[in-house]
Amino acid sequence: MDKNQQFEKMARRVRWRRLITTILIVIVTVPVILILGYKASQMLAAYQVQKLNTEMCGREEIMAPNIQISDQMLANNSVWGGQVVSHRYKEIDGYRVPWSMAIGNYSLLNNSVLANNIGSVDLANSGAYDRDTQTKIPVLYNNRVKRPIVKPAQEIAKVAKMKNYVAEVAVTFDHPLTYAEIQQKLPTTIKANWLWLGVSGKADSTDMENDLLGIQLENGKINEEEYQQHRRTFQQASKLELLDYDGFDMAKYVQQYAQKYPKLKQAKFAGMIVSGRSEEFKALANQSWITASSVGAAVKRVPYQPVSY
């Protein structure tokens, strides 16, 4: 074998060794890269889920008029993103009424959630309705708006004539009231479920897709500690990506509210949503401090399920 043949043989060996080495490197590194990439994507997704979950919880705390959540869960998930879904309901004096879901989307790099109810409200001459369930929405009014999208209603007297029902009614005050003043005016047979913070200027609250700012009460009551918890959420409103409605900056308004009313005894409310047995609403009919009353969900009472209030 001459020197040229020996050189070619050695060269072939070197090439094979390099090829085998390259293949081994690929076999080892590609799975490692895939695993690291998957873990990185999961970390990014987890961050977006946590951020989205915080935003949705904050919104549902301060911007869900007498609407409560039964759970908040992941749905339609993939490596690239998915959804956070809240199943919601209303509780009307012990009777539960299904409500539309709140849904947020997330990807590896961002997340987005529309205002809690935007796009899920149908407007009609007779009022506003939840699009998914077609349940009537109790409407609150800005007294400074002369011609709101939804015509002001006076429905308490009609509710009082209903027999064997439980109902929720949105009550708009003629002027802002403190919690103590509300307790004095409200009959003991009617429960305050939700207190409305109001709006600024001439913002039309009937044209806000039911995205109103307020406080949900536990068993019709609220104490200073609970108010401070809500107030802390008010102060963080700029992180919740709330919408503006016709110049009404919701985040700015609720932050100013928290600053203006540092204590529960100072806080003033523009209206409320109350619930109770239909016959008991007679005590609220024709009250001068009520400028509008709009009924929402109403449920026929049944003997096997007593009312809660």
UniProtKB/TrEMBL annotation:
Residues annotated as domain Sigma factor regulator N-terminal: 9-97
Keyword Transmembrane: yes
Membrane is among the record's keywords: yes
Entries under Pfam families matching the protein: Sigma_reg_C (PF13791), Sigma_reg_N (PF13800)
Bilayer-spanning residue ranges: 20-38
Alphabetic keyword roster: Membrane, Transmembrane, Transmembrane helix
Domain Sigma factor regulator C-terminal as annotated: residue spans: 163-296
Protein name listed in UniProt: Sigma factor regulator C-terminal domain-containing protein
